[in-house]
Amino acid sequence: MQATITLLPGDGIGPEVVYLTRDLLAAVARKFGHTFTFSEALIGGCALDAVGNSLPAETIQACEAADAVLLGAVGGAAGSRWSDPNAPDRPERGLLALRSHFKLFANLRPVTVFPALASGSPLRPELLEGVDILFVRELTGGAYFGEKREQGNGDVAWDTMIYTVAEVRRVLEVALKAARGRRKHVTSIDKANVLASSRLWRRTVESLRADYPDVTIEHALVDSFAMQLIRTPNRYDVVVAENMFGDILTDESAVLAGSLGLLPSASLGSGTFGVYEPIHGAAPDIAGKGIANPTGTILSGAMLLRHSLGLEAEAVAVEKAVKQAINDGLRTGDMVARGEQSVGSAAFAEAVRVRLES
Length: 358
Description:
The protein has helices at residues 14-32, 45-51, 57-64, 91-101, 125-128, 165-180, 196-208, 222-231, 243-257, 295-307, 312-327, 345-357, and strands at residues 2-10, 35-40, 68-73, 106-112, 132-138, 148-151, 156-159, 185-190, 216-221, 238-241, 264-268, 274-278. Helix 1 (14-32) packs across helix 10 (295-307), helix 6 packs across helix 7 and helix 8 packs parallel to helix 9 (243-257). Helix content is 41%, strand content 19%. A hairpin with a 5-residue loop joins strand 11 (264-268) and strand 12 (274-278). The protein folds into 2 domains: 1-105 and 271-358, Isopropylmalate Dehydrogenase; 122-257, Isopropylmalate Dehydrogenase. The chain is globular. The mean pLDDT is 95. The strands form 2 sheets. A 10-stranded mixed beta sheet has the order 2-1-3-12-11-4-5-10-8-9, sandwiched between helices. Strands 6-7 form a two-stranded antiparallel sheet. The two termini are 22 Å apart. By secondary structure, the protein is α/β, with parallel strands linked by helices.
């Protein structure tokens, strides 16, 4: 196979983890006889610094010419030159605009627990047994994209959470179809006891129930689910939520895995094109130190192979190599338990490559 992958390293630790994953994808191509061509473009804070725009036209063109995009992270620390909430453009705006431009409405965030890392979670090990959740987050609607207004001197402000049936239906279809290949159970998150948009969401779920008689569908209020996710995480299979709820809950779910650095994501639309990125942020406090955990980005690369390129065996090989490296005791600093030794980003990625190629 020949494929073009556009890299958007972004800010902070983004370039470090993206370049390590690029090298691993190149190793996949060599091992399995593919040709991957990599291009690179700017997004986020580095794009603001270079051209004054968090998503330059050149970046959009580079992504349009690619089969898939691998993204690092965008943003800076509080108090940085990019963090003014009143600025006309911010790093995060570039990411939202990218998703909107390519109509990437479904964000897949798998959460699994590596048994070898269970001691790194603050939860009791028995609560983590069998945890395997696929979060499906709606990505281009809700309060993040609704009308935003301020009045007076900023004493009054509001954000509009707006959804249409069509927007809700298409992301629910993604979740329900995914469940058919898993344990056939979907938990739909809303706040239907308070929000009109959530009542529309719940009605749309019910309208699809007859089309998926083989899938068990349940509703959960977001506040109650946030508690149950920690109390009984292994009872959930596929969880689908609107944009803001999904954003918050998937970050919460990182406590199950033990670190934000372990979790990947895929942002997909109606075709095979997708944007793949770890769920963690730019972590500017550790940028340039060579200690960032590349696992989430490497596993995002595996999702890229699976969903955009249709290379299931190659994706599984990467995932197995990551698991083997962890089982063999390789840990970046965020993964270590008391008494364990850590390795740097490059050493961990190299350990994965060696296991992939062996």
